[in-house]
Amino acid sequence: MVNHLTALSVALAATARVAAQASGPTVQINLNQKFQTYDGIGVAEAFQRSLVIHELNLKSQNLVLDYLFSNTTGAGFTILRNGLGSSPTDPFDHMKSIAPIAPASNSSKLDYITLPRHDEYQVWLSSQAIARGVKYIYADAWSADGYMKTNGMDTNGGYICGVTNATCATGDWRQSYANKLVKYLTDYKDHGITIDYLGFLNEPDLSTPYASMQSSGQQAADFLEILYPTLKKSGLKTQIACCDGSGWEQNRAVLTGIQEAGKENLLGLVTAHGYSSAPGAPFQTDLKVWETEWSTFDPINYDWYATGSQSEGLTWANHIQQTFAVSNVTGFLYWWGAANTTDNESLIFINGTNQVQVTKRLWAHAHFGSRFIRQGATRVGTAVSGDSTLDVTAFSNTDGTVAVQLINNGNQTEEVTLSGVTVPVGNVQTFLTNQANNLTQGYAKTDGKHAYALVPGKSMLSIIAKN
Predict the structure, then answer these.
(1) How many other CB atoms are there within 10 angstroms of residue 341's CB atom?
(2) What is the C-alpha separation between 392 and 406, in angstroms, rounded?
(3) d(CA 314, CA 332)
């Protein structure tokens, strides 16, 4: 659980004023108290936003890619979520299917086409992301093709034909849908890209005017009993993810239905969004859990903290920290990384071929990215003594370093003592983000047993120590 404390670290110039010992709260790191492992943070560029990045001039293109995926100059995202298309055509904002034409019947072989524009430039983006350190590619389908569904279209909800309470005159289309999904995976393999997780639903609790398909837990289980053996037969190592519910509790309901149907063992990953209900209590599952989509839709906001609005960087720093600490996720994904949008659906605003503007939300994510927290790290226990306005988390990396994240939600600077990790005599590195700083590097004074740092109000500080 996140501890309310005003943690450790340094505010660059302020650090010089930290005395030999801080007078504020003490943050205790307990390396023996271990929680979930860490997979990373991530974004999507679905609905042709990969194309938007590709159309930038080369300098701006590389700038955006490095902001997103570099673990030295950017946020260090390690998860990329791609959209698996179902549309018969591909005007902008659509994701075209690899089987856009209905076959003669549900038992006929699908007439596949090559990945349209290499999957609307998602193949290109995946390659660029992997080259910069991305570890996981997650392909998620928003819907089956319209001819496979009860409503005859890939938009406006509807159900896959053949699941419980979804009978169609054209028959059961579950096998065709499974075949198409596996073909998509093999197409990526032909491009030298391994898709680690495959999702067949997105927000199944909603019917939307864009690609969407509804499902209950039982109906998802009905499809899993077809998809799982089809995937196994292919020989691919990809695991199945489910179900990207529109909110935490909406997804809990679908997951519970799958569990009650006895099909949870067919999954490799549980996925959920943060819109309809924010991440809360952990799901009752032994599977890894990712929060896979969340953003806001108010006018674009570049602030870290101004009014405490839902789209500011500090708000999102708290969201990410709480989701790791309270919901026990192993991965946290925002919606778009970079897009030509004028609201807060993306972390980076793109306009034309060369305009790139970064929001403070990107730097909130960076504190939890691969700059500081490595794949395979373990979240460890934290505790704070004394009055404070801090929230604290810590991750122990396999290389012996410990990354501590301190968020000061109060207005006053906190003088913090960090204990429980090995620190050299002299100083340790800190990284500060607030309205005036973006991961500004500084140092916390140390005495060989403790580190002493200042955390300004409305700020976030990461401290990197040895265990």
Answers:
(1) 19
(2) 5
(3) 16
